[in-house]
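Hi R.,

Here's the chain you asked about this morning:
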Amino acid sequence: MGESSAADWPLGAAATNLAAETDAADRPRALTPGEVAWIALVPCALLMLAVVVLLGPPLGNALLAPRGLEFWPSVFDVQAIRPEPVEHARYLLALLGPLLLCAAILARRSAPRLAPRQISGLVVASQALTVLALAAFLIAQRQHVYEEIYAGPLRRIYFTASTLIVAFVLLLLLVGALRRQTLVDRVTGWLRETSARRGACAAVAIGFTALWLLASVFLDSSVGRSIVAINVTLPFSLDEGYAVLNGRTPLVDFHAQYAQLWPYVAALAMSVFGASITTYTIAMASGTALVLLAVYATLRRVVGSSLGALALYLPFVATSF
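And the predicted structure, written out as tokens:
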């Protein structure tokens, strides 16, 4: 009789298969885009924090500081206007953060291959640090006291205990639903993309957006009955479009308060349809509608379903206004 190996016996074969599976599970592999996003999130955030803190002051003072200009000195107290070039520069630098993370995801092919256990550990660690950071930011926001120049001293609590509890309960319900495969399969069938659903959802998104923005359209005959906030703030933005119609050029002989290029859009609409408050508010509402619908289009491409994108878009619009 020939010699037999351990693999010839049932227990030996099972042990061999288990060893092969364990070896395959520990074999280094390339990272997926999602794994790279989580692993690179904390390093990118720390790098951007250093850039914002260190480069904000020199860039702001060099490029964004006011140069001998006064904001309506005959109307406003000089103490009521506080230019913040450093804050503006830091905000502009912070916008580079998402681009940096996208660059890290695109460069994933050059990332080292890691074992699945290492990948899982790094992802979980990044997620835990993100949760801790969000909790710290939430606590800091609740403790922050605004100065008197911002109608302070006061605290502004945006996320109350009730909203946080409701969000946590909804998260638990969502996680529980995703663990039920039959429910997931049923929802997946509902969200399946078809031409009819795409057209119907687009019509609902456009109609809801238009309906929601009707409150921002004022006629020349009705603007006098608007709330005080509209009566006070509308002239400040309206005069920028009129300045362009009167031959002024922003950044040359006219210093706009709200926008430098957008007044040209308002001026174009008013030059075609009449220089009225009605034309101006319709033009501004139309621009806002296009931006919101661009958000819906982005959600549709991210989710891969028009119905799913609509379910996210409707509360986004409702809570944004």
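The mean pLDDT is 85.

Let me know if you need anything else.
M.
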